[in-house]
Amino acid sequence: MSKRDYYEVLGVSRDAGDDELKKAYRRCAMKYHPDRNPGDASAIESFKECKEAYEVLSDGGKRRMYDQHGHAAFEHGMGGGGGGPGGYADMGDIFGDIFGNIFGGGGGARGPRRGADVGYVMELDLEEAVAGIERRIEIPTLAECEPCKGTGSEDGKLDTCETCHGRGQVRFQRGIFSMQQPCPQCHGRGQTFSSPCPECRGAGRVEEEKVLSVKVPAGVDSGDRIRLTGEGEAGPPGSPPGDLYVEVRVRPHEIFVRDGDDLHCEVPIRISQAALGDVVRVPTLNGEAEIRIPAETQTGKVFRLRDKGVKSVRSRSTGDLYCKAVVETPVNLTAEQRELLDKFEATFVGDGARRHSPKSSTFFDGVKGFWDRMVS
Predict the structure, then answer these.
(1) Among 86, 296, 320, 336, which residue carries the largest CB count within 10 Å?
(2) In angstroms, rounded to a whole number, what is the distance separating the alpha carbons of residues 342 and 351?
(3) Tell me, what DSSP letter sits at residue 305?
(4) Does 50 appear as a known binding residue?
(5) How far is residue 117's CA from residue 115's CA, in Å, rounded to a whole number?
(6) pLDDT of residue 109
(7) 197 labelled as ligand-binding?
(8) 28 assigned ligand-binding residue
């Protein structure tokens, strides 16, 4: 199934600014977050779609590439990391491969390439991502064969390839073009051997599970990547290994929803607390904090706790915690509580009752105006 346009996903115009993008993403994330839609597979997919769109459009370089080439800009992602906005193709490498093969690679034959990069996804709890963590991981990879030291030769003896004369590349003519490709005899190594290593069967590399310790810095978020140089697959003999890219994915939290360095949560309060005012305690990532609920608070009011969010992994500034008050309707009432509520409701009589319900008054005034327009 083809991907939707990123601007359409977020519901913004193609000239939307950073603030508009951020607000649109926040609305989308709050609407489709898995915590708000438990068990809803379509909501989870929509949440992922919103996050992917924002990750591209909020990055100046990626946005320019997307505006020029659409989703095709990310179809040649980093090896091991898959296609997509997490890592777009190096266009210089693409054109270099094409024109290098046709015209001879800038005047010199190319030796064996470095080992492949490897991608690994590390899932973290929100608390782990915020505080930072060191974790051991196991990754399947191709490592240098120990018995032959990566040469592929059982006795270590290597001969210059007679086909390419040690260059690792062969050149042939196709029409008016001079083409170049890895030597089919030595597979780009430039060397051959008579006795292949029995451990790796001459490949110079063997499959194994590598155990590594990864230090995750405090403040990372989903989509952030950590590069471990030289920890990817071993390359052919004489070439360096690739790199390992650890991509972070933060699991949904039962209380908080993260938006950049800010956190959002809902705080349930009783109707009496909302009407009379109160002080309530709320959780933060560093313990509890207090919120003073003023009298006559309506559901949906948001309270901001400065510096109670996430410390940025880049700027080291700290985000805020936004607590949304949600007035709960009481349930499982006793007979006494019902009687008290009946007496309380009886006090709302006549036109004077409307001054106690600001939203209700506005609503019914709107309804009256609607019907007046309908009958006129």
Answers:
(1) 86
(2) 19
(3) E
(4) no
(5) 7
(6) 40
(7) yes
(8) no
